[in-house]
Amino acid sequence: MATQNLCSRCASLGKTCCQETEIYLTVGDIKRIAEFAARLDFYEYRAPADPSYLDQEDDPVWATQTMRPDKTRRVLKHQAEQNCLFLTPTGCQLPMTVRPLVCRIHPFTYTNTGIGVELDDRCQRARPEPGLDLVAALGMSLAQAQAWHRQLYEEIFILEGVESNEDRHRLRPAV
Questions:
Q1: Distances (CA, A) of 48 to 9, 67, 74, 136, 142
Q2: Taking the domains of the chain in order of start, what are their residue ranges?
Q3: CA–CA gap between residue 163 and residue 169 (Å, rounded)
Q4: Global pTM value
Q5: Which of 3-7, 106-110, 127-131 is least confident?
Q6: Which residue of 45, 67, 100, 148 pairs with 72 in a disulfide if CB–CB is 3.0 to 4.6 A?
Q7: Which residues pair with 43 in a beta bridge?
């Protein structure tokens, strides 16, 4: 019998990170999703629902680059019941190459200094099957996760709409 992907197994157990998490979006994420979905109304600026998120002592780069002075940040909008806007009964409607970088990396732990190979403590619903490490259970390579991590930290330094004149005209706030 084939091993079920960790995220699929998690979804079969009940609520998932796609339903309970505020997904931060880089400008690159917005561009990729907008091109795929042909719309820009999928994100908003919102303060974290969990005030403890504002304490980012372990990653000051994240804290300074993802939060605006008013303590809001770009996040995916939610549907009813706090589901991610792109979550369907059969899973995420976004292809892996379009999904937000934080979704691709989850449930790895990470900071600006690197990516860990241990499962994020907040991801308690599904654990790798016995004999499988996290990387194998997720169906990706550690090298791919590290590449997405590098891309994420490169993209959090891109200021909204200033990377090119073309982007200035295509990206507008979703408010």
A1: 28, 10, 10, 32, 29
A2: 6-169
A3: 11
A4: 0.79
A5: 3-7
A6: 45
A7: 76
